[in-house]
Design a protein that fits this description.
single chain; about 200 residues; alpha+beta; seven-stranded antiparallel beta sheet; three-stranded antiparallel beta sheet; 10 strands; about 30% helix
């Protein structure tokens, strides 16, 4: 029977050089990416009428009449919070019901299947009257051609109608692909819960 020393001598040797280089490159890439990711910060939109608290890594920008905060990701649909003003007469008695129905119709038209999971009315987002419509929708990935053989994505989210004490109306949309990480979901909820309207 061979001795332990003989068995160790016959084992193939491992060249640790490539593994060390790969580990250094991976660590350097992660540090580089984190160094350029936006820090946690406060953001203002619409001339200071909307205040955001954005977690580390989230980007935000204004596009046309909406303010969009997103967590950059390689997935087809990124976790997103969108805020846009609603230009309408909020003193109309039917305004709230009509606007909620319009939000639902607009959301349903953006996917293959749409289902309302829950509707809630509460004072939130700085103490303003709001209607929350929780939903799930099945969508094709962005830029998919009609009839293309692609796997659809289940997106879960909430559309919120906010009416401030001054009578201004806002639409808040927050959504992400289902089964995203628990951390992403917590950050999404934190952004929505931290929104303030002036």
């Amino acid at each position: 029977m061979p001795s332990p020393e003989h068995r160790l001598a016959t084992l193939p040797s491992i060249d640790w050089g490539p593994w060390l280089v790969a580990a250094l490159l991976l660590g350097g890439s992660i540090a580089y990416a984190r160094g350029f990711a936006p820090e946690e910060r406060h953001a203002r939109a619409f001339d200071g009428h909307v205040l955001f608290d954005l977690p580390h890594g989230w980007s935000a920008h204004q596009e046309s009449d909406a303010f969009v905060a997103q967590l950059p990701t390689l997935d087809a649909i990124a976790p997103t919070v969108l805020v846009e003003p609603i230009e309408t007469d909020t003193t109309d008695a039917l305004f709230q019901d009509l606007e909620v129905a319009r939000m639902q119709q607009s959301r349903a038209s953006g996917g293959i299947g749409y289902r309302v999971l829950h509707v809630d009315e509460r004072d939130a987002l700085g103490g303003h009257r709001s209607t929350w419509v929780w939903y799930a929708i099945v969508r094709d990935p962005p830029d998919a051609r009609p009839g293309a053989a692609v796997m659809p994505i289940v997106v879960v989210g909430v559309d919120i109608l906010v009416i401030t004490a001054e009578g201004h109306a806002w639409h808040v949309a927050a959504f992400e692909p289902e089964h995203e990480s628990a951390d992403d979901e917590q950050e999404l909820r934190r952004i929505v819960d931290g929104l303030r309207f002036r």
